[in-house]
Design a protein that fits this description.
The chain has 204 residues and is an alpha+beta fold. It has seven helices and eight strands. The radius of gyration is 16 Å and the shape is globular. It starts with a helix and ends in a 6-residue tail after the last helix. Belongs to the AHA1 family. Pfam families: AHSA1. This is SRPBCC family protein.
Length: 204
């Protein structure tokens, strides 16, 4: 896996409105929108690149990711977009799919946190690297690079993915810096905590 190629394939933005911090990510996938949508919403396929999901998977229903967050399904417009709460009512996640050049798909992921876990835009370091890992898994899956017997949880603990996580955290540090949404002191404090979670042996 070319770690820097996958890191650079993602556009990352951080913004802040009052106490709400939003991360916006964009990535292209070499697959039709219908294929990407199916990989994002079919529980059997999701477990192969992301994690198991259960629930009443329709508007008005709820979902639960195994060992992770759950939420309510607010909107769904196949195969274009869906919007859910993620881990709490003030945490909103929206995914949008747009047709790209040829048979590709442009994916936008927007996660807004009304109660950010760190001051200002530095709260993006709690969620951005995790979503980077998800977008990586999706990319490997839709291009057929993930073996059928891959366990995404075990893969997330592999040295290669931990190296990827470190580069992801560093990319988010730069995105937050560019946004001007927090102080350098708060940014570095959050970055140390983020690295301890995503790449424990790495240092700033």
């Amino acid at each position: 896996m070319d770690i820097l190629e996958h890191i650079n394939a993602v556009q990352r933005e951080v913004s802040r409105t009052g106490e709400t911090v939003t991360v916006l990510m964009r990535r292209s996938y070499q697959a039709e929108p219908a294929e990407v949508w199916d990989a994002l919403t079919d529980p059997e396929r999701m477990r192969r690149w992301f994690m198991p999901v259960t629930g009443d998977l329709k508007v008005g229903g709820s979902f639960q990711l195994e060992g992770n967050a759950g939420g309510d399904i607010l909107e769904c417009d196949p195969p274009k977009s869906f919007k859910v709460t993620f881990g709490g009512p003030n945490s909103l996640l929206e995914l949008r799919l747009l047709p790209g050049a040829g048979s590709s798909t442009e994916l936008e992921l927007e996660h807004s946190m009304g109660e950010a876990p760190a001051p200002g835009g530095s709260g993006a370091l709690w969620v951005g690297p995790g979503w980077d890992g998800a977008l990586l898994g999706l990319a490997l899956y839709v291009t057929g690079e993930l073996p059928a017997d891959t366990d995404p949880v075990q893969m997330a603990d592999s040295p290669e993915v931990i190296d990827y996580n470190e580069q992801s955290v560093r990319a988010w540090i730069e995105a937050i810096r560019a946004s001007g949404t927090t102080t350098e002191e708060d940014l570095l404090s959050a970055a140390k905590i983020s690295l301890s979670q995503y790449a424990p042996d790495a240092e700033l």
